[in-house]
Amino acid sequence: MMVALDGTIVAIANPAIQKDLGASFADVQWITNGYFLALAVTLITAGKLGDRFGHRQTFLIGVVGFAAASGAIGLSDSIALVVTFRVFQGLFGALLMPAALGLLRATFPAEKLNMAIGIWGMVIGASTAGGPILGGLLVQHVSWQSVFFINVPVGVAALVLGLLILTDHRAENAPRSFDIPGIALLSGAMFCLVWALIKAPAWGWGAGLTWTFLGASVLGFALFALWETRVAEPLIPLGLFRSVPLSAGVVLMVLMAIAFLGGLFFVTFYLQNVHGMSPVDAGLHLLPLTGMMIVGSPLAGALITKTGPRIPLAGGMALTAISMYGMSTLDTGTSGAVMSLWFAGLGLGLAPVMVGATEVIVGNAPMELSGVAGGLQQAAMQIGGSLGTAVLGAVMASKVDGDLAGNWADAKLPPLTPAQLDQASQAVQVGAAPVGKGTPPELAAKITAVAHDTFVSGMSLACLVAAVVAVVAVFVALLTKRGENADAAGAGAGHI
Question: Is the CB of residue 224 less than 8 Å from the CB of residue 241?
Fold first, then answer.
């Protein structure tokens, strides 16, 4: 709940953080990307820690660290400090997330695992739904800092309940040693990949630095794969990927996160800066999305238990693709009812994917590797989120840069110098109108109209790209099937 709440609260708070700290579009992206980078690099290693030392201990350490980092963000007075502590949030979140799935896998027998993951998804959906409204109220009536302070009491409650309720479980044949070279190679390869994706929009996709980091990432993954075949207790036994359903589940999580997290990044700016909504109103307009996730997650768990994951997953991604296409048609005058329709479709489409892909990955892994499998699932989502934010952010930026000068001239506005045009483009990329102080109202209205139309054209193209990614995911979903090793969960339950 704490991690999911934080995600949507931060999305609502981004415009306020940007204004208060004088942050650029790139700075705001780093609030998200710093978190994603830390998560992506450390999730699989964190899963291994849970398998080795027990998921209960790992989970509780993650809870304490996440809450402490949240409090530190609330005390920060610069964008650099906010990003730094977001990285620490990501590191502790990496301990917490695979451990949660490992605990579920160890506790519930095979026939109840899908429903348990469905309830887990419902809690995520409920906190995601509450995030925008709670975040909106806090940003509007207290401060953006308060949206981070809220994690402190939640963390304290989670720690107390965790100490009282959670039971330790370790598989009998869990790994007893650490693959330090494997951890170093995988972390280095993941860092180079995500760093290249984050920096490519600034450096340029054809730039030498971008390709240097991408090349280093490929080399790192190749060396990691080679090393894993030589070591007695590898970090990730490559035999896991002989399972086509497990591999398809990982790819599906990446594609889902590209479409969802990449597309959603722009929506809060669209609601607040283009439509002029307050943070509370923006949160209320996102309720159909998160509300459908609440309703859909347990239903998806029950459906997947009866029919298997293939059809629900493919159907969910198809609905996601349709909804992202619908979001590409939003403009400056779109009504709340039309927005709600597409947001609801997106939430309903995502629910079976969140539940089903998780079960496919964790259920197809051996019990003793449930933490590593949970780490794989979460790492796939974070890489997808970084990829989505970077690639769709680049699509948005290039569309705005390409269209703004022409739109500005067509509106017969006063010409801008190259430096002024670049500054205006930075503002338009977050949906803001570059209106200076003392600008006559008629001229300000013209500038605002051009800025909003240009932003919406960029967001529309980004949503279209996200829809294409979701269509590809439909075909990947057809390769999934029920976890072959799910019965191990039932056996594990007897040891608790």
Answer: no
